[in-house]
């Protein structure tokens, strides 16, 4: 890998393709990725890696924004293909995803760790051959009552949640930018203090 790293970053938004999934909790990563692309005037284009991608800059950093076009549980191969194509070191891969074990509206940042039952992360870890990539975890909270978590993540955000969603998506996009421009610990200090 040494000598191959371009110094660029790869930011991946996870979700499921198709209109029927557009407003679901599982597509939080897509929402954040789209917000970043809009902020930076980056036009996502179809890439041979079964993903949409755009190159842009965050401050001095070169960044590739990517949104997989595969279903969540097979996110890994498109992520690994984008990483290889743009010559990004796995330590500079940032995956934005929904997280059941974080309260709705909270954003948490970390490097590495397990997949916590998230099939998208499991697939990415397998395809990259490492867990040591960065994660921006978008809190969606736990399902009510005895609802199956698999059903909960594929449901649309509730009306009250949808009112807050644009603000929360913006905050998660801010967290991605802080990760790239400031580093993990300063970004954690800033965003983990927020609910």
TrEMBL record:
<keyword id="KW-0694">RNA-binding</keyword>
<dbReference type="GO" id="GO:0004045">
    <property type="term" value="F:peptidyl-tRNA hydrolase activity"/>
</dbReference>
<dbReference type="InterPro" id="IPR036416">
    <property type="entry name" value="Pept_tRNA_hydro_sf"/>
</dbReference>
<comment type="similarity">
    <text>Belongs to the PTH family.</text>
</comment>
<comment type="subunit">
    <text>Monomer.</text>
</comment>
<dbReference type="InterPro" id="IPR018171">
    <property type="entry name" value="Pept_tRNA_hydro_CS"/>
</dbReference>
<comment type="function">
    <text>Catalyzes the release of premature peptidyl moieties from peptidyl-tRNA molecules trapped in stalled 50S ribosomal subunits, and thus maintains levels of free tRNAs and 50S ribosomes.</text>
</comment>
<keyword id="KW-0820">tRNA-binding</keyword>
<feature type="binding site">
    <location>
        <position position="73"/>
    </location>
    <ligand>
        <name>tRNA</name>
    </ligand>
</feature>
<feature type="binding site">
    <location>
        <position position="71"/>
    </location>
    <ligand>
        <name>tRNA</name>
    </ligand>
</feature>
<dbReference type="GO" id="GO:0005737">
    <property type="term" value="C:cytoplasm"/>
</dbReference>
<feature type="active site" description="Proton acceptor">
    <location>
        <position position="26"/>
    </location>
</feature>
<feature type="site" description="Stabilizes the basic form of H active site to accept a proton">
    <location>
        <position position="98"/>
    </location>
</feature>
<dbReference type="Pfam" id="PF01195">
    <property type="entry name" value="Pept_tRNA_hydro"/>
</dbReference>
<dbReference type="GO" id="GO:0000049">
    <property type="term" value="F:tRNA binding"/>
</dbReference>
<protein>
    <recommendedName>
        <fullName>Peptidyl-tRNA hydrolase</fullName>
        <ecNumber>3.1.1.29</ecNumber>
    </recommendedName>
</protein>
<dbReference type="GO" id="GO:0006515">
    <property type="term" value="P:protein quality control for misfolded or incompletely synthesized proteins"/>
</dbReference>
<feature type="binding site">
    <location>
        <position position="119"/>
    </location>
    <ligand>
        <name>tRNA</name>
    </ligand>
</feature>
<dbReference type="GO" id="GO:0072344">
    <property type="term" value="P:rescue of stalled ribosome"/>
</dbReference>
<keyword id="KW-0378">Hydrolase</keyword>
<feature type="binding site">
    <location>
        <position position="21"/>
    </location>
    <ligand>
        <name>tRNA</name>
    </ligand>
</feature>
<dbReference type="InterPro" id="IPR001328">
    <property type="entry name" value="Pept_tRNA_hydro"/>
</dbReference>
<comment type="function">
    <text>Hydrolyzes ribosome-free peptidyl-tRNAs (with 1 or more amino acids incorporated), which drop off the ribosome during protein synthesis, or as a result of ribosome stalling.</text>
</comment>
<keyword id="KW-0963">Cytoplasm</keyword>
<feature type="site" description="Discriminates between blocked and unblocked aminoacyl-tRNA">
    <location>
        <position position="16"/>
    </location>
</feature>
């Amino acid at each position: 890998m040494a000598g191959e790293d371009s110094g660029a970053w790869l930011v991946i938004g996870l979700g499921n393709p198709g209109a029927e999934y557009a407003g679901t909790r599982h597509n939080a990563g897509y929402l954040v990725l789209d917000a970043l692309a809009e902020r930076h005037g980056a036009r996502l284009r179809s890439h041979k890696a079964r993903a949409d991608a755009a190159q842009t800059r965050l401050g001095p950093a070169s960044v590739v924004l990517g949104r997989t076009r595969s279903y969540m549980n097979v996110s890994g191969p498109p992520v690994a293909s984008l990483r290889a194509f743009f010559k990004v070191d796995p330590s500079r891969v940032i995956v934005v995803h929904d997280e059941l074990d974080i309260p709705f509206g909270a954003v948490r940042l970390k490097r590495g760790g397990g997949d916590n039952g998230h099939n998208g992360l499991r697939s990415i870890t397998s395809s990259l051959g490492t867990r040591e990539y960065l994660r921006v975890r978008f809190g969606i909270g736990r399902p009510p009552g005895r609802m199956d978590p698999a059903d909960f993540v594929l449901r649309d955000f509730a009306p009250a949640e949808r009112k807050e969603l644009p603000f929360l998506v913006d905050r998660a996009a801010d967290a991605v930018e802080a990760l790239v421009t400031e580093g993990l610990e300063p970004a954690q200090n800033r965003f983990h203090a927020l609910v």
